[in-house]
């Protein structure tokens, strides 16, 4: 039986805007679960996502008070790292992993040792960088859906979300760009000209 997971990260609410873009609820309609890869900021965002599907979330530095933000309370949906057995795969969820790697210190192996010491994941979903990415490192399928509201750390605008499709021990990720009337597949060869934040 196939499983579809909606992927979202770095929503930064209410800094970015008061609520999620409405296109996100429509895009995630019908998914089996939702992964939020951290920097949620206000945890009521998870309540909104949970109206759509069960939610697993990574605790990011934003939830721990970085930049003077309010420290968010403990929540059963939020952990520094999740390791889930899904469709014959071990799927990890955490806020930050070094992808791409920056040896010798910032390697995926070191982060796996830190966050997933009991079992090496087949797939890791992460966020933090605000940059969409799908790549395999040392046999681990790494997926970052980018930021839904602060793409590439630029100003508030339509960003990216993703999906992780799991079936029969295989994983396939995809990234979509939010647009005025929904979502469109992300064009890796011709990315948007993101609007730079004005100081």
| Unreliable spans | none
Q: Which of globular, elongated, flat, extended, rod-shaped describes the shape?
A: globular
How many strand segments?
12
How far is the N terminus from the C terminus? Answer: 49 Å
As a whole number of angstroms, the C-alpha radius of gyration is 16 Å
CATH architecture classification name = 4-Layer Sandwich
In helices, the fraction of residues equals 10-25%
Strand order of the largest sheet: 4-3-2-1-10-11-12
The CATH homologous superfamily is termed Metallo-dependent phosphatases
CATH topology: Purple Acid Phosphatase, chain A, domain 2
Query: What number is the mean pLDDT?
Result: 95
The count of domains is: 1
Order of helices and strands: EHEHEEEEHEEEEEE
CATH C-level class is Alpha Beta
- The class by helix and strand makeup works out as mainly beta
How would you characterize the largest beta sheet?
7 strands, mixed
Strand content: 25-35%
- How many alpha or pi helices? 3
